[in-house]
């Protein structure tokens, strides 16, 4: 056998080994991907843990309307607050610039 044929045989053997390794690695990636992202069934480690929620959420919480309800011996008094107008909010000592628009002509 010549040197070239020996190198060719060695190269082919290495190629077969590498192809086997690639196949194994692809199978491993597929298996691990399936384990990580595949279908899962949810299993409770402690089935008694659900009972913690049974008692605490049976009574409804008090809503805002219930807390604002007035009892029989209380009377409701509605006080309407005075809202400040724009002229009351703006200070009187601010400078005023008046502009008059006449037919698309601005006069200052």
Show the helix and strand layout.
Blueprint: H1 3-37, H2 51-56, H3 64-67, H4 86-89, E1 100-102, E2 105-107
Antiparallel strand pairs: 1-2
Could you characterize what this model shows?
There is one protein chain. The protein has 108 residues and is mainly alpha-helical. A two-stranded antiparallel sheet has the order 1-2. Strand 1 and strand 2 form a beta hairpin. The longest helix is centred in the first third of the chain and has 35 residues.
Please count the helical segments.
4
Shape: elongated
Overall SS class: mainly alpha
Name the helix and strand elements from N-terminus to C-terminus, one letter apiece.
HHHHEE
* Mean pLDDT level: 77
- Total strands: the figure is 2
Overall radius of gyration: 42 Å
- Approximately what portion of the residues adopt beta-strand conformation? 5-15%
Distance between the termini: 107 Å
Largest sheet: 2 strands, antiparallel
Q: Which segments are poorly predicted (pLDDT under 50) over 5 or more consecutive residues?
A: none
Q: What is the helix content? A: 40-55%
Largest sheet: spatial strand order: 1-2
């Amino acid at each position: 056998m010549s040197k070239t044929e020996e190198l060719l045989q060695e190269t082919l053997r290495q190629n077969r080994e590498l192809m086997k390794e690639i196949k194994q690695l692809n199978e491993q990636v597929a298996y691990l991907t399936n384990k990580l992202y595949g279908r899962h069934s949810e299993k409770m480690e402690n089935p008694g843990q659900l009972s913690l929620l049974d008692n605490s959420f049976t009574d409804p919480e008090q809503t805002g309307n219930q807390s604002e309800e007035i009892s029989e011996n209380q009377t409701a008094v509605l006080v309407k607050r005075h809202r400040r107008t724009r002229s009351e909010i703006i200070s009187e000592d601010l400078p005023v610039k008046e502009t008059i628009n006449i037919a698309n002509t601005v006069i200052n």
